[in-house]
Amino acid sequence: MKKLDFKKAAAVCAAALLAALALAFPAAAADLPDRLVPVGEAVGIAVKTDGAVVSELSEFKTASGVCAPARDAGLRPGDVITMIEGVPVTSAQDMLAALEGAPETVTVRYTRDGKERQAAVKPWFDGETGYLGVWVRDSVSGIGTVTFYDPESGLYGALGHSIADSATGVIVPVREGSLLRARLTGVTKSRAGSPGQLGGELDYTGVLGTVEQNCQVGIFGQGREALDICESVPTAPASAVKTGKAVLISDVSGERREYAIEITRLYSGEDSRDMMIKVTDPDLLALTGGIVQGMSGSPILQQGRLIGAVTHVLINDPEKGYGVFLESMWEGR
């Protein structure tokens, strides 16, 4: 569900139930809040990249042959161009402006695998307009689900996995972004070999928060009180998660509700794949066929405690997918 790929549950626990849960689960990790709001709402996500992400290289036919400026200079898909001839680059328009009337060879600064690099590139010119021979991505938008909201700090977490460039798989560096209200317009069901997706429209006037961090275990930022939609629930660390029955919270039906799932296997350090889950709820299976794109981030609860989020679907068996531990999200934020 990485294309952006990208809501809900409330449980009011009586004191006696909380006491019973305290016996059933180890104490939460020191840094993990005792309680969080399990949001479970599908939202719009719109971010602008910090630099121009190279999605594809291109070439030009000239009288003397083929010209491929970026490729010949050693650039490759996944590189993030940050500066040309000392001019900061955050978009494709910035690149064109920096190359306007540029010299025959320009200095291009870029990052690769988190390290800054520099290359001397000879642009191809069409009149005064220069081209590096790259297709770049400077913004990303889509639908995803908010996992949790912390009323104490205003922090939210969503998706459970990174926003990545669809062409290269590179985690998109975020310059700025917004969490937005979304209107769900329908569901394309998942089938073996063809994962489905939530259809939705982003409401750019309904800002729910900022997007400040995009990392392997989700996106994070400051949310507005509109995310405080239900009672908070107790949290549980990774050590408390067991195989067996659980629920996920989603608003795929148009209303936020719980759906039955089973945690079938637990992993360790598996790239936001901490557990394998299987959808068992007949209502959700009838509606979605299992897990669909856009459900990423749906909160997972076990015995009334928030333990993690849905992250991926198994393409050939969409009733199954992966989840990330809440503790992994919290520590990786």
Compressed to H and E, one letter per element, the order equals HEEEEHEEHEEEEEEEEEEEEEEHEEEH
Give the count of helical stretches: 5
Total discrete domains = 2
Q: List segments where confidence is low: pLDDT < 50 over at least 5 consecutive residues.
A: 1-30
Please tell me how large the radius of gyration is.
22 Å
Q: What level of helicity do the residues show?
A: 10-25%
Beta content: over 45%
Q: Could you name the CATH topology of the largest domain?
A: Thrombin, subunit H
Q: What is the average per-residue confidence, as pLDDT, rounded to a whole number?
A: 88
Sketch the major β-sheet: 13 strands, antiparallel
Number of strands: 23
Q: How does the helix and strand content classify structurally?
A: mainly beta
CATH class category of the largest domain: Mainly Beta
What's the architecture of the largest domain, going by CATH? Answer: Beta Barrel
Distance between the termini: 20 Å
